[in-house]
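I hope you will forgive my troubling you with a question about protein structure. Here, with my thanks, is the record as I have it:
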Amino acid sequence: MNTRPPVVVLPPASDGGRQVTIHGKPAGTAYSLFDVLDLVHRADLPTEDRAVDDPALIEWRGGGPYDWNEADSPDTAGG
């Protein structure tokens, strides 16, 4: 079964914000892990501490939950 997680966090932008989609729709811009958890909570999805590491819930693109600067992003580092 190939199901996508409901939450996708895109790579950091130049301002450090990361666009978040939930169920394929824009949910907002997160500037910290707490912002992501807030958006997840507003969507009535689980927000336990372990939720940020749950690949069935959140797909992190261009860095994980602790990458918030564009320069930290593996997709943008070095170029």
User: Anything to note?
Assistant: Helices lie at 33-42. The chain has one helix and four strands. The chain has a mean pLDDT of 86.
